[in-house]
Amino acid sequence: MAKELSARDVERVKFTFSIYDFEGNGKIDAYYLGDCLRALNLNPTLAIIEKLGGQEKKKVKMMTLEEFMPIFSQVKKDKECGSFEDFMEVLRLYDKAENGTMVFAELEHILLSLGERLEKSELGPVLKECCQEEDEEGLIPYEPFLKKLCA
User: Fold this and answer.
1) What's the rounded Cα separation, in Å, for the pair 129 and 148?
2) What's the burial of 25, exposed, middle or buried (CB within 10 Å: 0-12/13-18/19+)?
3) Which residues pair with 21 in a beta bridge?
4) How far apart are CA 51 and CA 60, in angstroms?
């Protein structure tokens, strides 16, 4: 097990791992690697998940807790994964009036074209679930959006 993890982290990892151990055999399907890491409040990209052994199909690879712990530790230390504060800083760049709002269309553009791009078909449900209605000027408050998205 990763020695640099606190006892609290180890317990959290064991508990979360047990939730994704659907068969109760001490293993999780590598298909759920990203879900398990996100349940532990980490934000790995799809590329990182793939690099760490995540699979696109179920029942291709199984992973034990001993294999998962170093992965958790590595992703936890990774500074490239954005945090809520990092995302807020980025969206503040689009806040022309400096009042906590941004143009809804710009948010759509960001999500469709930057970083790990969403497909147009994926974007609609995300925006519907996480965004407030835009006002008459086409603006939305971006902090509530990020809070829901990062929750």
Assistant:
1) 8
2) exposed
3) none
4) 15
Lookup result for tokens 């052994």: 53
Higher pLDDT, 54 or 42: 54
Largest pairwise CA distance in the chain? 55
Q: Which residues pair with 27 in a beta bridge?
A: 64
Q: Over 80: is that where the pLDDT of 115 sits?
A: no
The answer on pLDDT for 1 being more than 50 is no
Read off the DSSP letter of residue 117: P
pTM: 0.61
- Contacts for 108 with CB less than 8 Å, ≥ 6 apart: 123, 127
What is the torsion angle, in degrees rounded to the nearest 10, for the CA atoms of residue 42, residue 44, residue 50 and residue 51? -100
Q: How far is CA 141 from CA 3, 13, 53, 130, 133, in A?
A: 42, 34, 37, 11, 9
d(CA 34, CA 72) in angstroms, rounded, equals 10
* Pairing label, strands 27-29, 62-64: antiparallel
What pLDDT is attached to residue 80?
60
